[in-house]
């Protein structure tokens, strides 16, 4: 993969995004994640502005609704020119299939390549205890994630969002031809923050990650370029 690190642009203002991206000599070499905070503030315009820099874009809105609503929403996202987007696997097979149809229709209408559809399994902020006591799930975390990933693959998703701790089980159960995108990535010296299931870039790569998502350890670092290079170097360690 040419751009293995997806930088989460967790900023409230587009001016901050521009200030951050301006520090990179060639932003077209980056994949960036646009989440709810930016998109709900600026809408599709923020995607268009960042796309003009040549960045690959991961639009992470985690759609979760009835199939018809998700399909029509995905039609709009498919026409935006994003490269990746997300849907909740807990919405079920019919919803994920509708999401795929919507992306295909939107991209075709706009004459663009179809975005990769990634299914969100369990958030990296969810612990085993929360899974059991709040979600009332009787499966242990690794089995729950594998079950949801299998459903996502059967529904036409191109990959899933998963913590690094489930990567070995996922590769064993679903194979290496599925895209495993891993948030909750931290170097050992970085703060974990609100993440419960974390790993280093090197560990994620060795266990079969397709890509990793890193936000605050890069974007809030006093030297973002150095921080990015540090994560990239660790990812590429043999």
Describe the structure concisely for a colleague.
The chain has 238 residues and is an alpha/beta fold. The protein has helices at 14-21, 36-42, 44-51, 67-78, 93-110, 128-133, 141-154, 167-174, 201-206, 216-219, 224-235; strands spanning 5-8, 31-34, 56-63, 84-88, 116-120, 159-161, 179-182, 211-214.
Report on the architecture of this protein.
- It contains eleven helices and eight strands.
- The protein is α/β, with parallel strands linked by helices and 238 residues long.
- Strands 1-2-3-4-5-6-7-8 form an eight-stranded parallel beta barrel, surrounded by six helices.
- The protein has one domain (5-235): Aldolase class I (TIM Barrel).
Topology:
Layout: E1 5-8, H1 14-21, E2 31-34, H2 36-42, H3 44-51, E3 56-63, H4 67-78, E4 84-88, H5 93-110, E5 116-120, H6 128-133, H7 141-154, E6 159-161, H8 167-174, E7 179-182, H9 201-206, E8 211-214, H10 216-219, H11 224-235
Parallel strand pairs: 1-2, 1-8, 2-3, 3-4, 4-5, 5-6, 6-7, 7-8
CATH superfamily: Aldolase class I
- Radius of gyration, taken over Cα atoms and rounded to an integer in Å: 17 Å
Topology pattern, helix = H, strand = E: EHEHHEHEHEHHEHEHEHH
CATH class: Alpha Beta
Q: How many H/I helices?
A: 11
Shape: globular
Give the distance, in angstroms, between the N- and C-terminal Cα atoms.
16 Å
